[in-house]
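Hi V.,

You were right to ask for the full record rather than a summary. Here it is.
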Amino acid sequence: MSAQSVSRMLTHWKNFKMLLVFQGILVGLVSGLIVVFYRFVLEKMGRLSVWIYHCLSDNYRLIPVWFLFLTGIAAIIYWIIRKEPMTKGSGIPQVEGVLLHQLEMNWWKVILGKFIGGSLALGAGLSLGREGPSIQLGAAAGQGISKMLKRPTIEEKFLITGGASAGLAAAFNAPLAGVIFALEEVHKNFSPRVLITAMSAAVTADILSKEFFGMKPVLNFAEISPLPLEYYGYLVLLGIILGLAGSFFNWALLRCQELWGNLPWLSGYWKIVIPLWLGGILGIFLPEVMGGGHDLIMSLTREEIILNIAIILLTMKFIFTMISYSSGAPGGIFLPMLALGALIGLIYGKTLNLGFRIEIHYVNNFIILAMAGYFTAIVRAPITGCILISEMTGSLNHLLSLAVVSFVAFIVADLTGSKPIYESLLERMLENNNKDKHRVSKETTAKILLEIAVQMGSSIDGIRIKDVQWPAGTLLVSILRGQKDIIPNGQTSIGAGDYLVVLVDESQAAYAKEALLKMASKY
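Predicted structure:
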């Protein structure tokens, strides 16, 4: 790339904040429409599934026909993920891999495959969520808009991020959670440019979602009184339990995927057939554990469920989620993990009621708090967990108690050595046999800009630029310090809170970003 081309790129980088706002709104509009339609289709298919199982319970002679139909659905899903492997599973690790320059995504194939495959998998009753596919659908839409507008590579990454935020916002009516998820989980830094794109896209998508589905929160709990301060000691114990349970969830999911993939008699097609058949059996005898878990969560607050039944539901939901996700069918673990957290909270609250005479109406508080804590322990994104549950339940009354549970769960999960689940899933994805098909091409000569946040206490905090051992093939072109855009020289000192703008070959971006993050991070 010529010096003139690099100069144009840097000039564009310094002047495209407002452009990101308008492009973010466009991405939010398109992503929101796609995800709203996806959510609408899933709701219709969910009602159809309930009606089918009601018919099967009245006429057992139709069961073989239904299982034959499930076998056909498995064939379609298997064909989709063979044609486009990036449609497998959640979609969140794939998006993170694309943004880390480790994977490539064909946007229109992903949108078609994820939409159809996810609708079939979730409609058939697998214990999978809509949020992972929604995030990937939004990200793919953002990439598609970038391609059609012929935006540069660096801008495309922002639009993909905006689409991912819009996808989560539209899936759960949670715009702030969509923004925080992009910052905390996907990028793992609070870049102003990421914030601008994610916020404009998420708010636009949320407006569309609320226009179609209404203003009520996704989990419309009845008015719940805040938990008294004298009960906060129980929150610490709940956080410890959730931290350990979240670590076990991560271990079990990865182990189940490994086991499911190593069974010699289990081919790719049968990996999908068996979970669908198991879902068919559960749909007849234990329909509560079917699907993502939205109806299950709401039933916990409306119905009197005895402790033994709650333990059975927790066990079967956990097992079915492990098997469903390990099949590779398009679908996420976001909503199932919230359902599992809600069940843990119900069991914990009822146990306290029986053993310590805590008032029964506070059980619903523990259901809400356990969802956030369990999410935090698994994903390791405590701010997202608190904001997400607050938006989903439509109440800010629980923010303090949510923060306590999430903080304790985060610390305990971290002490166990468990990695964040999406990070682990991405690592596993890159290690599989088909990774080269979607790895970024090493032959590209394009240049891109990376934005790296400097943490307090990192190895380069307070160090002059000339004294830093920069990775080979990288060029520091700017330092963003608050609202200032500093042109660096050898004597310029780097400080905590700075954002380093680094020019690098696209083919070396993954290596360079990893090396730069190690330098700029304390741990």
